[in-house]
Amino acid sequence: MKTSLKIRILLCAGVFADFAFYSAAQQSLEEIKTGIADFSGAVLSVSEYRGTSLDNLVLKSTITYKNSYPVLEKQYDSGNSLKSETSYVYRDAGVLSEIIGSDNSGNEIWKYSYNYDDRGRFIEEVSYGSNGSKEWQKVVTYGAHGYPIKEVTFGSDGTINMQETTAYNDNWQVSEHKTLYPDGKLLKRTVYTYNDDGRMVIENHYDITGLYERIQYTYTDDGRLKTATTVGSDGKVKSSTVRFYNASGKISEEDIFNADSSLRSKTEYAYDTHQNWIRKKDSDGQYIVRELTYGD
Description:
By secondary structure, this protein is mainly beta. The chain has helices at 5-12, 23-34, and strands at 43-51, 58-66, 69-76, 82-92, 95-103, 108-116, 122-128, 134-142, 148-155, 160-168, 174-180, 186-194, 200-207, 210-219, 225-232, 237-245, 251-258, 263-271, 277-282, 287-294.
């Protein structure tokens, strides 16, 4: 796990709301695109199983929670043997201090540490390898408005590996995000457009040659994501996603279509009485089943 992707997914799920580089505005963008949301109810643990039959599922992971925060995640191999563990350490409730990865014998193989300024804002992430040596470091700076505006990633030798900048509109929603090479030249640029209700409707992707892709979003009358259509620079549709919801407002089905409108994949959802999803089935017959335990 030598990446921050999983951490950012957790952040966008609202687990570590103050940590995310893109702020509350970007959290909304990620929720729109991924559908990730907080659990309902006092969840104590989540076990995830996968397989092609409900009668023959294989345990893949278990996550233990305390006061709504993950504290221990276990990953299993196809034989149900422990493969690795991830531990989450906090300074105070919800203030992440470290994430530590261990092998099946309990030996530390990687670690992320997090630091904050005197206002409690996340300012630094450091990655360490199995021998305890620093692999890379990310430093976040904030504008006068209090929102993060720049993130710089340094290598183990202190040289810049990558830079990211974020700009905001008058409503403090993310309006532009740039990824830059170490010398400051543009690698990728994303521009976001919102409707009068504050919902993102267009996401334009650019590289050094110009616009190469656009994602267009539509919503239901009650503000839930309805469609996401990806269009190339030539204006032709590349793919589209359509979502359907149940009476409780939860996603019941998500269909993805190819450029020719043929169905690429279909995912169906089922929920428990707390309205947390407990089963997903895709068009290939693959199941993902979650077993949740709850406290008082």
